[in-house]
Specification:
Layout (H helix, E strand, L loop, with lengths): L9 H13 L2 H13 L6 E6 L3 H12 L3 E6 L7 H5 L1
Parallel strand pairs: 1-2
Helix pairs in contact: 1-3, 2-3
Length: 86
């Protein structure tokens, strides 16, 4: 289930997430390992963080590792709506 304030911001959010992925090489390396090994297969991971492109990238890395991921913003004032929509 997704509850995003404005889904029309998704394209901008995706652009920012892709930028972050290019500038977080260590996490991208880990993501590639996770894609092969699936260390979190069958595990659900929940997070309550400031939702911004960097933390969305973390969630995508966990997904690559086979996890079912549930993310929520911990503070509506720090949530980047475009990243949440992306």
């Amino acid at each position: 289930m997704s509850n995003v304030r404005d889904m029309s911001l998704a394209d901008e959010g995706i652009r920012k997430i892709k930028w972050v992925q290019k500038h977080m090489p260590v996490l991208e390396h880990i993501k590639k390992q996770f894609e092969e090994e699936k260390p979190f297969e069958g595990i659900t991971i929940g997070s309550c963080l400031h939702l911004e492109p960097k933390t969305v990238n973390l969630g995508l890395t966990l997904l690559a590792g086979g996890a079912e991921v549930a993310m929520t913003g911990c503070n509506p004032l720090s949530t980047h709506d475009d990243a949440a929509a992306g």
